[in-house]
């Protein structure tokens, strides 16, 4: 079973105090989150680094993979497990030089299988597709069909992430279509009980393995 499987948690882009965000992440990991992507697009570098350090410490203590969104240098400075790259971020080769051969490098591929093929060829560790459903986090995101996950599973040799508007009610359909991981933001962080919310997603993966 690949370690890149299961519930993939993405932090909300909010000015939350580092210790509060770390506590929220700890609750979600207790519910079954396996991978945590720290995402913050704000310009407050000091807050960003403080949040990232606090969340990384929790992930390390609880055995979850810690990945930084779109900032290979921050990822390298924290000795994180890896980085996730979007369309306007550094390329895979640049990130790999900064982070090393063992780093996990994910690439957003939206609704584009050819972009995913190119990412795999460049050395990506996994690719992400979506949005599959309407998303409050990115309401203007392009939409992808579940059938894309099936095509990706057949065409690629690396794990596949589904993201965008995923709930415990619709997530099973995406796993059945081919997703190794379900990426979630508000489906966990916006809920009153983060542990229970994470557990609802984690339970979709039979015996902890999506396929």
Protein model, in words:
This protein is α/β, with parallel strands linked by helices. It has one domain: Alpha-Beta Barrel (TIM Barrel). It is 40% helix and 18% strand. It contains 9 helices and 8 strands. The protein has an 8-stranded parallel barrel, surrounded by 7 helices. Strand 5, helix 5 and strand 6 form a beta-alpha-beta unit. It is globular, with a radius of gyration of 16 Å. The model has no long low-confidence stretch (mean pLDDT 93).
What descriptive keywords fit this protein?
single chain; 211 residues; alpha/beta; TIM Barrel; eight-stranded parallel beta barrel; 8 strands; 18% strand
In short:
An eight-stranded parallel barrel has the order 1-2-3-4-5-6-7-8, surrounded by seven helices.
Helix content: 25-40%
The CATH architecture assignment turns out to be Alpha-Beta Barrel
Low-confidence stretches: none
What's the order of the H and E elements? EHEHEHEHEHEHEHEHH
What percent of residues are in strands?
15-25%
The CATH topology annotation reads as TIM Barrel
Count the helices. How many?
Answer: 9
Write out the strand line-up for the largest beta sheet, numbering strands in chain order.
Answer: 1-2-3-4-5-6-7-8
In whole angstroms, the N-to-C terminal distance is 9 Å
Q: What Rg is obtained from the alpha carbons, in whole angstroms?
A: 16 Å
Number of strands: 8
What is the general shape? globular
Biggest sheet descriptor: 8 strands, parallel, barrel
- Class in CATH? Alpha Beta
Average pLDDT figure? 93
What structural class do you assign from the helix and strand content? Answer: alpha/beta
The CATH superfamily appears as Aldolase class I
Overall number of structural domains: 1
């Amino acid at each position: 079973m690949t370690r890149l499987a299961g519930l993939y948690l993405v932090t909300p882009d909010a000015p939350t105090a580092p210790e509060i965000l770390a506590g929220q992440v700890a609750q979600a990991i207790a519910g079954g989150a396996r991978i945590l992507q720290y995402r913050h697009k704000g310009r407050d570098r000091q807050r960003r680094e403080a949040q990232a350090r606090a969340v990384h410490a929790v992930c390390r203590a609880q055995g979850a993979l810690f990945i930084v969104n779109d900032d290979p240098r921050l990822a390298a400075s924290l000795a994180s497990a890896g980085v996730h790259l979007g369309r306007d971020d550094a390329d895979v080769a640049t990130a790999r030089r900064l982070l090393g051969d063992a780093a996990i490098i994910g690439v957003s591929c939206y609704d584009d299988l050819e972009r995913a093929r190119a990412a795999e060829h460049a050395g990506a560790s996994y690719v992400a597709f979506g949005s599959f459903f309407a998303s409050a986090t990115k309401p203007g995101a392009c939409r992808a069909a579940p059938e894309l996950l099936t095509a990706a599973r057949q065409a690629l040799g690396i794990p596949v992430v589904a993201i965008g508007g995923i709930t415990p009610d619709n997530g099973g359909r995406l796993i059945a279509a081919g997703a190794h991981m379900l990426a979630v933001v508000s489906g966990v962080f916006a809920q009153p009980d983060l542990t229970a919310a994470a557990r609802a997603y984690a339970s979709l993966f039979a015996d902890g393995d999506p396929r």
